[in-house]
Amino acid sequence: xxxxxxxxxxxxxxxxxxxxxxxxxxxxxxxxxxxxxxxxxxxxxxxxxxxxxxxxxxxxxxxxxxxxxxxxxxxxxxxxxxxxxxxxxxxxxxxxxxxxxxxxxxxxxxxxxxxxxxxxxxxxxxxxxxxxxxxxxxxxxxxxxxxxxxxxxxxxxxxxxxxxxxxxxxxxxxxxxxxxxxxxxxxxxxxxxxxxxxxxxxxxxxxxxxxxxxxxxxxxxxxxxxxxxxxxxxxxxxxxxxxxxxxxxxxxxxxxxxxxxxxxxxxxxxxxxxxxxxxxxxxxxxxxxxxxxxxxxxxxxxxxxxxxxxxxxxxxxxxxxxxxxxxxxxxxxxxxxxxxxxxxxxxxxxxxxxxxxxxxxxxxxxxxxxxxxxx
Length: 375
Hints:
Helix content: 55-70%
Strand content: under 5%
Radius of gyration: 21 Å
Structural class: mainly alpha
Distance between the termini: 21 Å
Shape: globular
């Protein structure tokens, strides 16, 4: 499966950007997990291990043969759905949610891998149904059904934040695949009509998060505590920040989940506006590079998959930053490469490895029923 010369075609820019973000995240995890007078070494060491495993995952997928990823899309997708069902049966419960599978001392969250599986499945589906002039509603309907399956399984865990990402990926892939405009209008109308039903389907704590987003001060010591403390941390950083390891919101445990969902608040407090501007520049460069690879690819599946995976990263970045700044309800969406977490780190590096693999190929577009021709 591995042939010489592949490393010479590796898109090093996207890997170096990811490693730069991982370095920022590693330092941030150490700062965010230390307590007053106590070093945050344990989670720092674990995150370093996750980064190393992520790099291995990157190269494992990058070094796969040309076309192999496209061939295994459907077995992987249906396999992930089976695992999501298993989670609901024997998954580990933590914080009132059943999202993890435990194997010894190792815990992983299948819903993270499911996001990438959905992107690849949608890319394959739209590739097979693509025709010039735009994809119609009839061709889009199977994609909607395909996305609803993991959406429902993850929502039952319950994890509406992650479930919502599946729908964002679907909408983004519809744009990438050039679906007709009227299909977008139909889906938009259906989404608006579904809002009342979604509200009643939410659990009490989920409704409370939405209400708290609209008015954080209505419950400052309860549901609004996370957002209030997060905005204090971000705002107190000022222009230059308080300095590395000098932040107080995270170190004194005023900021909940300071190393996972609210990692950006710890970073903003210590590095200030200038530091966050540099971090945002790295994220923008990563997203730009992803869309560049999508636009450059001459193979339709590769183009759709790279575009979809870039949307996957963009959704996580925008939602997490908006949540930390009080511009979006609190949901369990990590900041890629910066938040602590093994499943998300390995999944993110795996996604980049897939993008690098697909961007490496040099194929011409193929019409229905025709074989691909090497350029």
